[in-house]
Amino acid sequence: MGDATPHLEPNTTAHQDLESSKTPGNTQPSTPSNSQGDELTFSNPPKLSLVRLFWYFFYNFGLFAWGGPVAQIAMIKEQIVIKEKWITLARFQRVFAVYQILPGPEAAELCMFFGCLSNGRIGGIVAGLAFILPGFILMLVASYLYTLAGLDNIYFNASFRALQPIVAALMFKATHKIADHSVIKQATKKVDPFLVTAAVCTAINSTLRLNIFISLGLYGVIYMFIARRLWIPAGILFILQYVGYAIYVVFRGVPSPVSLALGIAKTPSLINLFVLGLVAGTLSFGGAYTAIPFVQVEAVLKGGWLPQRVFIDCIAIGNVLPAPLVIFATFVGFQGGNTDGGLARAFAGAVVITIGMFFPCFLFTIAGHSLLEKLVNNKFLASFFDGLCGAVVGVIAVITFQILRSSIHGTAQDLLTKPVELAISKAANSGTAAVLFTVSLAVLYKFTNKWVIIVLVVSGAVAGQFLFLDELAGH
Questions:
Q1: CB-based burial of residue 397 (10 Å sphere; 0-12 exposed, 13-18 middle, 19+ buried)?
Q2: What is the pLDDT of residue 271?
Q3: What is the pLDDT of residue 130?
Q4: How much is the pLDDT for 8?
């Protein structure tokens, strides 16, 4: 990573054992002298002081966390596991499997795990903070500049108008990637039709405006029955959800869009922002894309204190910065605090929602990884999490389509814009936005380099000055 990186050398015996076990095409070392159990418990981290540990994760990973979670995890694996051999590849795969079912960004959790190995629980906290800090500071600065420029700045809005369909393309690609992992049956490594059904039905439930928590919990339980071939209880639960919905509609009518929310952030007070971050962070199975729908429903639909286009802008900024994508919550907290009480409250709001968002992953990771490894191997709980992860895909898919519609056609308010000529101009630019979405999606599937997202976002910001500035300047 650079000359400033501490030189970490594992002990010679372990190093030779691991090197001798490598064969071309084999991704997990298999040492003749070590059993599989040894590989899963092998640990040889350097004992770094807290200051050196902070600098190690800050410099090597925090400053270079570009390109999203896949690039971040690959970077951590290459540096710590492949080059410096703190643990074996077999153990890394097991640890990574555990963190995939935990709430929070896996890259941050991996940094905490390795920090714990080096210097105990305090080391885990230090390593996690070191990884998150650069992105948090940059998002705080970006939030301030966004507010300083003003929502009515034509140059600012022109760039973000172009970025919105690019964000929609990023979410479409992410939904596909998440689905690739979430609907696969672990035992066979093949697509599980029941998990696909859970995703589709959860998407349908979202359009019917059933609460997200009901669908996630329900399909987790249903899949637990299916995994044990208890078809009758699974079928009864599946039917009961729609019977219950029909009864509700008859007596109470079709639920409103805000019925999907818990209503925990009707106003962006500091305590409400903290709770919003805490609940969203607890729900972020598989990373930020699971937290996005929940924050959108609470802040944009239920609370109404965050405009939809501003929410999409914060996701665009989060995709550019070297940080876990859940750092978008910092932007949401800043805007909410600014709405609630001005600039000082904005900075406080950014801090408290970020603490809430990351608290669950710190808690679960630091509290006891060994216990989590036992839990993930429990078939009873594992099947529940499998069903929940399958259902999550449906939630993300629905919110992705909503963001796509908003980014291309604009919001319903745009159609009521006065004068009428401006409303017509906004509608006419839908074609340009659609082209941006299509081109961006094609680029994302054609190129997989970690810098592609950054290039797309920067190019979109520049293109917006040519594509949308005349519309905004003319009115």
A1: buried
A2: 95
A3: 96
A4: 40
Q: How far apart are CA 83 and CA 75, in angstroms?
A: 11
pTM of the model: 0.70
Q: What is the DSSP string of 45-65?
A: -----HHHHHHHHIIIIITT-
Spans of all domains in the chain? 45-133, 134-473
Quick: pLDDT tens for 418-438.
Answer: 455 555 555 556 788 888 999
Q: Element (H or E) spanning 185, and its range?
A: strand 184-185
Place of tokens 């529940």: 384
The answer to whether 90 and 18 have CB atoms below 8 angstroms apart is: no
Ranges under pLDDT 50 in the chain: 1-36, 412-413, 415-418
CA–CA dist 471, 475 (Å, integer): 7
> What residues are paired with 285 via a beta bridge?
103
Q: Which tokens is 170 given?
A: 């990023």
Dist CA 436 CA 158 (whole Å)? 14
- Tell how many helices (H) and how many strands (E) occur in the chain: 21, 2
Task: Record the tokens describing residue 335, joined without a space.
Answer: 């805007």
Show the CA angle centred on residue 351, arms to residues 348 and 353, nearest 5°.
105
pLDDT of 178-237, one tens digit each? 787 778 776 677 889 999 999 999 999 888 888 777 888 899 899 999 988 999 999 999
Q: What is the DSSP string of 248-287?
A: HHHHH-SPPGGGGS--TTSS--HHHHHHHHHHHHHH-BTS
Nearest residue to 443 (alpha-carbon basis) of 427, 432, 454, 433: 454
- How many CB atoms sit inside 10 A of residue 256's CB? 11
Taking alpha carbons only, the member of 123, 94, 128 closest to residue 110 is 128
Say how many C-beta atoms besides its own lie within 10 A of residue 98's C-beta: 21
One-character DSSP codes across 388-428: HHHHHHHHHHHHHHHHHHHHHH--GGGGG-SSHHHHHHHHH
